[in-house]
Amino acid sequence: MTMRVLVLNSGSSSIKFELYVMPEERVEARGLLQRIGEPEAELKAVIGGQERVERRQVPTHAEGLAWILGALTDPSRGGLRELSEIGAVGHRVVHGGEAFSAPALVTDEVVRAIEDHVSLAPLHNPPNLLGIRRARELLPGVPQVAVFDTAFHQTMPERAFIYPMPYELYREVRLRRYGFHGTSHRFVMHGAARLLGKPVESLRLITCHLGNGCSITAIDRGRSVDTSMGLTPLEGLVMGTRSGDIDPAIVAFLERVKGMKLAEIDGLLNKQSGLLGLSGKSNDVRTLLEAEAAGDKRAALALDVYCYRVRKYIGAYTAVLGDVSAVVFTAGVGENSPVMRERIVEGLRPLGYRLDGERNRQAVRVAMDVAEADSPIRILVVPTNEELLIARDTYALARR
């Protein structure tokens, strides 16, 4: 059964959308509305093969989604004739806590459950909810599906997700590690299986989502058994502006020595640290590689720390899995930077990771095995597509 599926990703001041024809997985339209709530918002979209950029004031997400739906049915664009052609809507939702281990058809109960997890994702779940509520109003009777970033990691064993703190905190407020980027890790898991020509259930994978936000996951035969992000996306790898793992006593140290307030420290760790904080220049790996080549020592240090942290986690997750089938690189840096992949894998040869330099240099935005022919562990590049996986999940549930 052919169905058009609209995929929505509602951020704090933006709405990203893609319209798929399923099950062919053909993209009919895509776009990004940004700067919602500012004096002038911008909608950049490709609809009916035409790319347009429009600007107007958009005070709320509700008005923003109405603008997007209007653009999709604008006769001058050559898109949809009417909204009834949309058969289902898939929503990216950041946090589902322990309530969701799989995508879910949106009901009033599901909405309330997402609301219950706002305290765990105060910056993300509220705009996700706005998108869901407005889509239900504007497209009544159309199945809506929530796909959760955290759901894939609900298979982690307790020893991996629990923090060594008073257990009452877990029972009372569900203080634990949740992990994120689950949709991306799940997508490339299946992509790796196709590339290797083996079923997911036979593979042990380490998937590295490396972009501005970074996470790494150990996958044992289709199940996430450990991941680097924790209660929030701050834990784990060095990222564009996030610190990743630090001594938690640094928070009290900064309060005591620098007189910083908790909100200031939170902003420091999330928005002023990582590559940006170390380099003092940029959170963009491409910019830092250029600066390093020009002799910038802090840019070189930032990149070295970034690669070192990923390498440490790969080593740790090799121990977690025991027998690794492949390590998989994805997202902006993982897919597009052969030099960063080479630096990360450097030193892991004794563990069985043997990179083929020439193949690695060829692998930019394409799915490839870049390991040496006799490498005991395969090294894969698999481009991620979270929107496509949301469309697949939505189509599967809506058909029922």
Describe the fold and architecture.
With 400 residues, this protein is an alpha/beta fold. The chain has two domains: 3-148, 2-Layer Sandwich (Nucleotidyltransferase, domain 5); 197-381, Nucleotidyltransferase, domain 5 (2-Layer Sandwich), CATH 3.30.420.40. Helix content is 38%, strand content 21%. An eight-stranded mixed β-sheet has the order 5-4-3-2-1-6-8-7, with helices on both faces. It has a six-stranded mixed β-sheet with strand order 11-10-9-12-14-13, sandwiched between helices. A hairpin with an 8-residue loop joins strand 13 and strand 14 (378-381). Helix 1 (61-72) packs across helix 3 (125-138), helix 10 (285-293) packs across helix 11 (297-321) and helix 11 (297-321) crosses helix 13 (338-345). The protein is globular and about 60 Å long. It starts with a strand and ends with a helix. The model has no long low-confidence stretch (mean pLDDT 96).
